[in-house]
Design goal:
single chain, Metallo-beta-lactamase, Chain A, 4-stranded mixed sheet, 13 strands, globular, binds zinc ion
Length: 354
């Protein structure tokens, strides 16, 4: 399936993305700023924090990783807009991942801002980023990988790979839970939260109806598709959640999409159709590989799928998300009666195609 060309809202921002540089701090609309905040050791390179001017300060959507470099970049970006970190009144977080949530606690400390998160992600905070939850989470991650057929030593290594992430997050309990459909009380803004589970259980997008904008977080991005995976903190069938919430968001009538990574773009519904098609193709590929063998583990299956590079060259920590992502497709097929799991150690997966 060929990549649909979505139109970048700002060609310079797109060129910065493809050229490997940091885009500039930009005034997107009157009172609305886009601030790229660098993220370490990650091919996504930066998260786009959006700052909305209020009568007495600013509200931001997403925060960035908990590093000094990120803090300084956000501080400098707010400076371009005429504000300081101390002026932040609210931190609306699209989801719990460290590149979005990591810096939230530190911003609150410096400014007294409130932090808002959807309840389904809020309830994961403690396990994910605090002792002893984090160790237990790594153990459960390892068990899940063993059930996928990952060799024991590799499973230990893969499960441990996420432990380093906690260094990039300050453990902050949100002050407010933002529910689906909730209107945010931000003077001058007509901002409504839309719950879009899948990439994380409590992922939120925000719609600005007056300005016809969608802040899409990681839910819809212009070039890449977000990781949707079964892991110890995921929903039972995250791919079903993701595709459902993608169909819903695709119906919105907006002029521009403001994602958390890459660059702003137009044509929301075309992009949504493409991403749905991408997953349908992937599901068909999984079915075809299953049909060619008489039962296999999820790990085996993952090694036989097409990835952006040969399996042997994929770094270990990325093989973990690849395995969990493959499992999400298997679970989706199982729920639709298109694949069968024989539970065991490991689970064996069978085709239901005759
Ligand atoms: Zn994410
Ligand atoms: Zn992200």
């Amino acid at each position: 399936m060929s990549k649909p060309m979505v139109t970048a809202a700002n060609e310079r921002q797109r060129a910065a993305w493809t050229g490997g540089t940091l885009p500039e701090v930009e005034r997107v609309r009157p009172g609305l700023w886009s601030i790229p905040v660098p993220i370490p050791i990650n091919p996504l390179r930066y998260v786009l924090v959006y700052a909305m001017e209020l009568p007495d300060g600013v509200a931001v959507i997403d925060a960035g990783w908990n590093t000094d470099e990120a803090y300084d970049a956000l501080s400098a970006g707010l400076g371009v807009a005429g504000y300081t970190i101390g002026d932040i009144k609210a931190v609306l977080v699209t989801h719990i991942h460290p590149d979005h949530y990591g810096l939230a606690g530190r911003l609150r400390e410096a400014s007294g801002a409130w932090i808002g998160l959807h309840p389904a992600d809020a309830r994961l905070v403690r396990d994910r980023y605090d002792e002893p939850g984090i160790q237990e989470l790594a153990d459960r991650g390892r068990e899940l990988l063993l059930r996928c057929g990952v060799p024991d030593l590799t499973a230990q290594e893969l499960a441990g790979a996420s432990m380093m992430m906690r260094n990039y997050v300050s453990m902050a309990t949100p002050d407010r839970l933002i529910e689906d459909g909730e209107r945010l009380d931000l003077p001058g803004w007509n901002l409504k939260a839309v719950w879009t589970p899948g990439h994380s259980p409590g992922h939120l997008c925000f719609v600005e109806a007056d300005r016809r904008l969608l802040f899409s977080g990681d839910h819809v991005l212009p070039r890449i598709t977000p990781n949707v995976a079964v892991h110890p903190q995921s929903a039972d069938n995250p791919l079903a959640d993701y595709l459902d919430s993608l169909r819903d968001i695709g119906k919105l009538d907006v002029d521009e999409v403001l994602p958390a990574h890459e660059y702003r773009f137009l044509e929301l519904s075309e992009r949504v159709d493409y991403v749905i098609g991408h997953h349908e193709e992937r599901l068909a590929e999984v079915e075809a590989v299953l049909a060619a063998a008489d039962g296999m583990t999820c790990w085996d299956l993952a090694t036989r799928l097409t990835w952006s590079r040969p399996w042997e060259t994929i770094p270990l920590f990325m093989r973990r998300s690849a395995t969990n992502e493959t499992l999400a497709h298997l679970v989706w097929l199982e729920a639709r009666g298109r694949a069968r799991r024989v539970a065991g150690e490991p689970d064996m997966w069978h085709s239901l195609q005759s």
